[in-house]
Amino acid sequence: MWSGDRRSLLLAAACGVSSTLLSRRAHATVVRGLTLPLLARQSSFVLVGSARDSSSRFISLPGSRRIVTDVRIRVEEPLLGSPVDTRVVRVLGGRVGSSAEFVEGQAEFEFDSRCVLFLRAEQHGVHWVSGMAQGHYPLRQANEGGERLAPSPRLPEILQFENSAVRQLSGRTLSELRSWLRGAAP
Predict the structure, then answer these.
(1) For the chain, which domains are there?
(2) What is the mean pLDDT of residues 112-134?
(3) What is the chain's percent helix, strand, coil content, to nearest 5?
(4) Across residues 85-98, what is the average pLDDT?
(5) Contact 27, 89 (CB under 8 A)
């Protein structure tokens, strides 16, 4: 009897280990992919800019109290919308004193690094990134020179990825995006 229990225990352990080793990474957040035309329609502004500084605080949203981080973006080139020197972009999450909140799927900025942002206009001069991380594209140097759009580092799992703006824009140059925006502009 004992050897049967031992075999069952070993078999259960082997199944547990193999399922751990063979499983894919789980995502806490899954979003429906936004197409490039939809991402552009949802955006009042598209710009090339870089994060200069940020501040976090608590705000009351319907049904909850949340931490938000306001990031001051220096606008280097407006691609769509009115030109200004800076924009304030708000993302969910951040750190206030000993309290911290992480929100999966939000754009994550690297200070002094260039990126392309698709932004929704909001009140009081504060904007949200359209489609969360789907509207944030860090610019990376390509081997052949020039900058190319990269997906946001905190991008959640995307349903319908094949038709998404992330798939269409990743690896593209700024001049390709400029051309598309000129053709897509109303």
Answers:
(1) 29-184 (2.40.50.120)
(2) 92
(3) 30, 40, 30
(4) 95
(5) no
Of the two residues 125 and 138, the one the predictor is more confident about is: 138
Give the SS3 label for residue 119: strand
Give residue 28's pLDDT: 58
Residues 116, 177 contacting (CB under 8 angstroms): yes
Do residues 117 and 83 touch, judged by C-beta distance below 8 A? no
CB atoms within 10 A of CB 110: 11
> What is the spatial distance between Cα 115 and Cα 133, in angstroms, rounded to a whole number?
12
Contact 54, 89 (CB under 8 A): no
**pLDDT over 90, % of the chain:** 66
What is the C-alpha separation between 117 and 88, in angstroms, rounded?
12
Dist CA 112 CA 44 (whole Å): 23
Which pLDDT score is estimated for 10? Answer: 43
The terminus-to-terminus CA distance of the chain in angstroms comes to 77
Q: Using CA atoms, how far apart are residues 152 and 60, in angstroms rounded to an integer?
A: 27
